[in-house]
Amino acid sequence: MKRRPARAAAGATAALYTAAVALAGTALVRTLWHGIEDPGIALAFWVLIAAGELARRGPADPANAPWAQAPPAARPLMSYGSWGREPAPIGVAGALGYALLGECAGRSTGHGAFQVVAVVATGVLAGAAPHIARGRGPAPDLIARRVLTLGFTAVCFQPLYNAGALVGSLGKGPAYALYLLLLLVLTALCDAVLAALIQWTRAVPHCVRCTEAVRTPFGPLLRDELRAFPGIGSAVCATGAVMSLGAAVAGLWALPVLCVPLLLAQVAFRRYAGARATYRQTIASLARATEVAGYTPRGHARRVAALSTAVGREMGLAGPDLAVLEHAALMHDIGQLSLVDPVPEGATALLPEAEQRRIALLGGAVVRQSGAPAAVAAVVERQADPYREQPLAARIVRAVNAYDDFDGARPGDALGALERLRLCTAHDYQPEVVDSLARVLCRGCGSPPVWVTHG
Fold first, then answer.
1. What whole-number distance in Å separates Cα of residue 448 and Cα of residue 444?
2. 3-state SS assignment for residue 77
3. Cα 433 from chain centroid?
4. β partners of residue 451
5. Which residues contact 369 (CB under 8 A, 6 or more apart)?
6. What is the predicted pLDDT for the residue at 214?
7. pLDDT of residue 57
8. Neighbours of 148 (CB within 10 A)
9. What backbone torsions phi and psi does residue 336 show, to the nearest 5 degrees?
């Protein structure tokens, strides 16, 4: 019974790979057996897909991310969301355009859904080959997700269009545009479900008393993906649809022209991602400052950040709110640098309430001077207030910090640390936060865990 979620995750991964390989293999064999329809058009889209994948930068596989070598409990649990967003928007837009292509320069195309899958799969692999050779290629599950998503789109469009049922019943006016819009929404939903499933199957910290993995619930992961879609996802879908419509009128010359806006967006996004990476490095350095100075135990800030993020997901936080929570948790003890005498073991949860509040206010002042967002500083400042006066992020940071302090004071007594939190829920810790923390600590088994990376 205890291993059922782990087996379910392994089964989901195997099913994802099997479906993608079966679909791509069948499509490739069938396309080669029957011959390529409109080889010039297929080649143009294949080159566009491969070039889009080749232009990708940064590790698409979270295993290649900078924090991949850190212990599991020390990794920010939202890191996949930061690095796993669509790394090759031009390639995906081109694949989507080919899946929705029914005409080219006023002439009907004859390719079907299987040829779409074959072109997409081989184009992605060709463009990813140089990245794979350098050890920075996309994860296999990302490629499987792309093949399945584009296969779904092609199956919903190509057979109906090639049979004449789509144009015959809807024409080429507003009804046809509404059908494309509906299909794009369904495609985005399919991609979000697959992306959330991939994240759910990934390994996260273990409980040392059982073999059960602590997994983020599927629901919050799916909400994260759906909330992220209005960004680059909507631009990719819109560009793919416009590519298919533009090529139907102007031919293949429309492809490079229509790629320009998305290319500019990709360049801007890279600059923004670079600024975000620098910002994260600054926060990580500030978080380690208390450890280097001997004010807090080794890994305390990273453990609190990882566990706070997991609790935040459990309680429904997502997107910017989750980022604020993670950054505030990393810097929650920064105020200790202003103390003359270090707190024993850095355990601020064991201090009098007035002293906790003074350290929190000092930390908020330091965070504001670092250039971090005001929301992060507010969470740091208010982490010592009574929970009824705190924002949710501050409630989570306070409870998780206290858990790590209590567990560090008596290593191995995780149950005792949780019990101490429960005894203080009338004033200091929100009961719902403590309950979420208990569920996150050991989802699927009955005993609270001791983190293997603690101490």
1. 10
2. coil
3. 23
4. 207
5. none
6. 52
7. 63
8. 18
9. -65, -20
pLDDT of the residue at 435: 86
- CA pseudo-torsion sign 149, 150, 151, 152: positive
Amino acid at 168: G
pTM metric for this prediction:
0.73
The helix/strand/coil state of 451 is strand
401 neighbors 429 (Cβ within 8 angstroms): no
d(CA 442, CA 433): 15
Longest CA–CA span in the chain (Å) reads 80
Distance CA 103, CA 38 (A): 11
Query: Which stretches in the chain have pLDDT values below 50?
Result: 1-3, 59-84, 205-213, 409, 444-455
User: For position 201, what pLDDT does the model report?
Assistant: 77
The two three-digit tokens of residue 264, written as one number? 């500019």
Residue-level pLDDT at 39:
93
The bridge status of strand 107-108 relative to strand 103-104 is: antiparallel
Cα–Cα distance between 435 and 173 in angstroms, integer?
Answer: 54
What pLDDT score does 148 carry?
94
Q: Specify which residues 107 forms β-bridges with.
A: 104
User: Tokens 């649990």 identify what position?
Assistant: 77
Tell me phi and psi for residue 314, to 5 degrees.
Answer: -60, -35
pLDDT value at position 58? Answer: 52
pLDDT one-digit tens code per residue, 6-49: 566 677 778 888 999 999 999 999 999 999 999 999 999 999 99
**Torsional class of 135: left (φ above 0), alpha (ψ -120 to 50), beta (otherwise):** left
Could you report the per-residue pLDDT of 117-172, keeping only the tens digit for each? 999 999 999 988 888 888 777 778 888 999 999 999 999 999 999 888 888 888 88
Concatenating the DSSP letter of every residue in 198-256 gives HHHHS---BBTTSS-B----HHHHHHHHHHHIIIIIHHHHHHHHHHHHHHHHHGGGHHH
Whole-number Å distance between alpha carbons of 309 and 451: 15
Is residue 394 a contact partner of residue 329, using CB atoms and an 8 Å limit?
Answer: no
Sign of CA dihedral 115, 118, 121, 126: negative
Paired tokens of 275: 């600024």
- The torsion angles phi and psi of 299, rounded to 5 degrees, stand at 80, 0
Between CA 426 and CA 434, with CA 432 as vertex, the angle to 5 degrees is 75
Q: Which H/E stretch holds residue 25?
A: helix 4-34
Residue 213's DSSP bridge partners are 206
Confidence (pLDDT) at 268: 76
Nearest CA among 391, 416, 394 for reference residue 405: 416
- What tokens does 405 get? 């302090």
